[in-house]
């Protein structure tokens, strides 16, 4: 033992060695600071720390960003729907709110706020989720970027990919199919984001004042579309369906859109073409919509000439330039840009989408918009018929049969009246008998005015 102690270096020797090493380290540091640029030093230190962290840490992190290759990330959407069901004792914060103005005592809904940690257990794995956000560096159109971080053990990485993410996707699809409320989105041009509002329109196919065979045709067409994913893939077509609702104002075009949304349980994206600065901006706007949704462009013939018949526009004004532009300050959307998303290469960026256009003047639309593949189904929304009146009477008055119906039927045959006008007359009082007599008087006045003209 004594011989071993004698072989150890003395404290003086150790101090001398430490001093030499420190001097050498300071010399090397001085040389690096003088010869190596600061940016390269930071890069080397960052890589060294990353390497050390990866070697020493037993954790693995998945990053799920909101957008993936220019479109919305469906995995992000699935996680967003799934995580509120996993709120538990380890959750450190919650975002709560209510969208029930008629039921203030209803419990608030729960959402996941930024930087909130959610802990999930799946097949013996402990999985920690965090929602983060950042703002990109685009100085012209800065956009908020949201993403989820999932931390797990390195040894669980493969099981997370093969079992956990498919479980999330399946659960999220069931949740979205069972959702109690729908959203209607409008595009905020300044923030470059879709802003949601709770959509609770009461219209259904049962309440629509339409011919029964037309309603059944639309429902059958929607059912066929939803169930034929394999067919669309087999024939090489994008899984989407285009509808055109046309007719005079007040004939129920917007109510039909609401009925379709309630029937399919699809959210609505209400787009005003004037909000798009260019074709590129339009692509970003449209690819920001989710799958299993309705893209609605109302009154496409109004406010912009992007959809107008180019031949007629040229006949009306041979000197007009760029007639399919939205404004003089922005490049605007072109007809070709809109068509490319409807039926071009960009139409494949998304699945299970309903695209609905409404117009009061179908004859003003460019023929290129009307062909199958862009607007597959054309539905004419006409004036009120006797059948439609009976439906309105049952809905508003609770009356399916009445002796005055025959008189009303005869008057409606010779008068053009929209369902909205009829509904307005049926809402005057709570007395059905008085309402029907007042309505007959109203129809007779309309007939007399027509005859006088």
TrEMBL record:
Lineage: superkingdom: Eukaryota
All copies of domain AAA+ ATPase, residue ranges: 239-385
Composition bias, Polar residues: 320-329
GO biological process: response to stress
GO molecular function list: ATP binding; ATP hydrolysis activity
Family, per entry: Belongs to the AAA ATPase family. BCS1 subfamily.
Full protein name: AAA+ ATPase domain-containing protein
Lineage: Eukaryota, Viridiplantae, Streptophyta, Embryophyta, Tracheophyta
């Amino acid at each position: 033992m004594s011989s071993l102690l004698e072989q150890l270096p003395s404290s003086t020797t150790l101090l001398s060695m430490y001093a030499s090493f420190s001097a050498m380290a300071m010399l090397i540091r001085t040389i690096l600071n003088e010869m190596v640029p600061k940016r390269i030093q930071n890069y080397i230190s960052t890589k060294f720390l990353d390497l050390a962290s990866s070697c020493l840490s037993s954790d693995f992190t998945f990053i799920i960003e909101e957008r993936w290759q220019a479109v919305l990330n469906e995995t992000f959407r699935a996680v967003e729907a799934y995580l509120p069901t996993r709120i538990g004792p380890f959750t450190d914060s919650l975002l709560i709110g209510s969208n029930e103005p008629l039921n203030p005592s209803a419990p608030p809904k729960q959402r996941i706020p930024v930087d909130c940690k959610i802990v999930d257990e799946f097949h013996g794995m402990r999985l920690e989720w965090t929602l983060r956000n950042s703002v990109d560096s685009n100085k012209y159109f800065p956009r908020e970027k949201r993403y989820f971080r999932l931390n797990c053990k390195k040894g669980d990485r493969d099981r997370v990919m093969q079992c956990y993410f498919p479980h999330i996707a399946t659960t999220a699809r069931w949740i979205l199919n069972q959702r109690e409320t729908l959203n209607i989105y409008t595009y905020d041009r300044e923030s470059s984001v879709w802003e949601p509002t709770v959509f609770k329109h009461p219209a259904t196919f049962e309440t629509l004042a339409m011919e029964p065979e037309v309603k059944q045709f639309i429902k059958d067409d929607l059912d066929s579309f939803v169930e034929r994913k394999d067919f669309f893939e087999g024939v090489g077509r994008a899984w989407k369906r285009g509808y055109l609702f046309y007719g005079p104002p007040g004939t129920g075009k917007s109510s039909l859109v609401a009925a379709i949304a309630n029937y399919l349980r699809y959210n609505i994206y209400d787009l005003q073409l004037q909000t798009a600065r260019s074709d590129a901006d339009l692509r970003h706007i449209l690819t920001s919509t989710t799958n299993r949704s309705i893209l609605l462009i109302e009154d496409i013939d109004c406010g912009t000439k992007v959809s107008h018949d180019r031949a007629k526009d040229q006949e009306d004004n041979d000197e007009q330039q760029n007639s399919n532009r939205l404004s003089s300050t922005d490049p605007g959307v072109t007809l070709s840009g809109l068509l490319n998303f409807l039926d071009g290469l960009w139409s494949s960026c998304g699945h299970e989408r309903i695209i609905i256009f409404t117009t009061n003047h179908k004859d003003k639309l460019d023929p290129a918009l009307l062909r199958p593949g862009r607007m597959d189904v054309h539905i004419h929304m006409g004036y009120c018929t006797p059948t439609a009146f009976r439906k309105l009477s049952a809905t508003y008055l609770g009356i399916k049969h009445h002796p005055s119906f025959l008189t009303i039927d005869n008057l409606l045959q010779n008068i053009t009246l929209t369902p909205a006008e009829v509904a307005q007359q049926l809402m005057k009082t709570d007395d059905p008998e008085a309402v029907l007599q007042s309505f007959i008087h109203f129809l007779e006045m309309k007939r007399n005015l027509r005859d006088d003209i």
